[in-house]
Design a protein that fits this description.
The complex is a heterodimer. Chain A is of the alpha/beta class. Chain A has six helices and four strands; from the N terminus they run ββαβαβαααα. Chain A has a four-stranded mixed sheet, sandwiched between helices. By secondary structure, chain B is an alpha/beta fold. Chain B contains eight helices and 14 strands. In chain B, strand 3, helix 3 and strand 4 form a beta-alpha-beta unit. Classes of the chains: A alpha/beta, B alpha/beta. At the A-B interface, helix 2, helix 3 and helix 4 of A face helix 6, helix 7 and helix 8 of B.
Chain lengths: 132, 323
């Protein structure tokens, strides 16, 4: 490892179920040092999404993301949509928003302006369960 | 002692000539930015254009395909790839040194996709007896590839008519070699049909030419061999033909990378200057400038404790002086 490389990055992924939607909250940083773990976490949750259900990934507390992290989000989307589900990303801001824009991942992933909006895109039941 | 890196062709896939509409738009932009004094006479016009014409023009990237020269002023030179830019290089050589070169030509070939070899039939020195050309490649079918494109039905002049002495050398990757006074190391890149990058060192400078290559995000790790290959380079010539979204979705496995990944790898490798190359022919000058600006912003975001990385886009005619 190069002396100028940062230490392995901190990352926390948690999930809660709201009706037919799994809401995954991500905080910290995702880069090449922990993207494999990030992908494993997302994939584990994606595989539990019921047919026709959905997954919302809230990146509101994500400080930083690299190409490896973006790829993990894309693979999670593919896993969910394979089961006729839907994946929506929300909460992107700051430098994460800039990375999404520059990489053009904002056109590749379904991005909502807020968690409420994202849940509503999954289903009315999910939105109601979240806001309730 | 300094080393010059001159870009004779910077496009990928296919040459992209400027259209009439583009040229007219550029003329209109310059004239709109000029004052009457700026265009009063020939001298003032030249001075106005040389000063950047009030930043009215984007970078003019040009349309020739891959061809890069690494040279020491009044010293030895290497050429990398025979894209259509090689025709311009040959014209310059014929103009400045005459039809028969005092020294042999030494050319490194990354691979044989047509954008990297299409200039050879127009490389005039190859036709002139007295010239000597050494072509180096990690592909053992290098001679076949040159002969194949030089005969019917692709080209009306058969290879055997060429008057120069042409020598093909097969080189091993990941081995330090001396070629015409330069230390050269080749390294395999992830690209259909196998492509090889070249690390070229002389006079304390390091130039890495590493096009064409698809660096998938999952390949990027602290142990990624490519990072050692580029480590400490003064200049990294990097294929950033697609956006990251394209390269990881619809254009996955097409063999090219993005500006985002270029910045990530260059920072990991402690590169000093990242230069985008092999530009997508569909991208106009404004879009290529935007790709560079956005990469500079990605560099600011991703740099952390590292030294700043310079980021540019190569254009036909660009000369970088190292050392």
């Amino acid at each position: 490892m190069n002396a100028t490389d940062p230490a392995p990055s901190s990352l926390k992924v948690s999930a809660e179920q709201y009706a037919d939607c799994c809401l995954v909250a991500v905080s910290g940083r995702v880069d090449h040092t922990n993207s494999d773990d990030f992908l494993k976490d997302l994939t584990a949750h994606a595989e539990k999404v019921a047919r026709g259900g959905g997954m919302v990934i809230d990146l509101g507390k994500l400080d930083f993301i690299t190409s490896a992290g973006l790829r993990a989000l894309l693979l999670a989307q593919r896993a969910v949509t394979t089961g006729d589900g839907k994946l929506v990303v929300c909460g992107i801001g700051g430098v994460v928003r800039e990375v999404f824009r520059i990489s053009k991942f904002d056109a590749l992933l379904n991005v909502a302006g807020s968690t409420n909006e994202a849940m509503a895109q999954i289903s009315a039941e999910a939105a109601e369960a979240f806001s309730g | 002692m300094s080393i010059d890196v001159k870009f004779w062709g910077t496009r990928g896939s296919i040459p992209r000539p400027q259209s009439r509409e583009q040229i007219e738009a550029q003329i209109e932009a310059v004239l709109n930015a000029a004052t009457p004094a700026d265009i009063a006479n020939r001298e003032s016009v030249r001075a106005f254009i040389a000063s950047g014409a009030n930043e009215s023009l984007p970078t003019i990237y040009g349309g020739n395909t891959a061809c890069v020269q690494v040279s020491e002023p009044s010293g030895p030179s290497l050429l990398i790839d025979f894209g259509s830019g090689a025709r311009e290089y040959a014209a310059e050589v014929m103009r400045t040194t005459g039809p028969v070169a005092a020294e042999p030509y030494h050319v490194l070939m990354s691979h044989f996709h047509w954008d990297h070899i299409m200039g050879f039939p127009f490389f005039m020195p190859a036709y002139i007896p007295g010239n000597v050309i050494h072509i180096y490649s990690c592909h053992d079918n290098v001679e076949e590839c040159f002969r194949r494109q030089h005969g019917a039905p692709s080209f009306p002049v058969p290879f055997d008519v060429l008057g120069a002495e042409i020598n093909f050398h097969i080189i091993e990757p990941d081995t330090d070699l001396e070629i015409n006074g330069y230390k050269v190391r080749a390294h395999e890149l992830n690209h259909a049909g196998r492509a090889f990058g070249f690390r070229v060192e002389r006079a304390g400078t390091v130039t890495v030419y590493a096009s064409d290559a698809e660096h998938k995000p999952e390949m990027i790790s602290d142990g990624y061999p490519y990072v050692d290959f580029i480590r400490g380079a003064d200049v990294l010539i990097f294929d950033a033909q697609y956006s990251l979204a394209e390269a990881t979705s619809v254009k996955e496995d097409w063999g090219h990378s993005s500006n985002v990944v270029g910045v990530e790898l260059a920072l990991m490798g402690d590169v000093r200057h990242l230069v985008f190359f092999h530009h997508e022919p569909l991208n106009n000058d404004e879009r290529l400038d935007q790709i560079v600006r956005e990469a500079r912003r990605i560099e600011e975001i991703m740099r952390r404790e590292r030294a700043p990385l310079e980021v540019s886009g190569a254009y036909d005619g660009l000369v970088l002086t190292l050392g």
